[in-house]
Amino acid sequence: MAERWTRRGVLALLAGGFAAALAAIAWRGAEAPDLVVAILRRRVGFLQIEDGAFERFSVAYLEARAEYRRQLGWLAVLAGPLRFVTPYRFLPMGHPLRRLEDNVVTRFLMSTDFFQHGADASRPVRYLAFHDPPATACQNFVARRRDAVA
Length: 150
Fold this sequence. Notes:
By secondary structure, the chain is mainly α. It is built from six helices and two strands. It is elongated and about 75 Å long. Helix content is about 50%, strand content about 5%. The chain starts with 6 loop residues before the first helix and ends in a 25-residue tail after the last strand. The chain has one domain. Helix 2 crosses helix 3.
């Protein structure tokens, strides 16, 4: 007589598969830049971003946020799944993962010429330099000159 799958057996199999997948991802050597790149590819991947911009930004972002490198390294295990899905909409406001995603996307867009060209999504976007207000001179990419507004 063949045994039927029980709910408990299916859940145990799924949990084991999930644990094995996480272990494989961790063993592959996911690093903190992978997490930043995964967030950017999912959130602003629809823009025409120059090649290598996400990678250059992720290195600069991690240098600026060096105090969080260890935590971001642990979160990098989730970089693969975060490339396709995110719990962002289900997380409460102020949740650390939600704040991380917002911070990465905002800093990236401020580090490009996206706002200098009127936030035009049809134009190619170039990475200029890491936007770090406390460390760099005062720049306001969003502001327009009065004579430019007609």
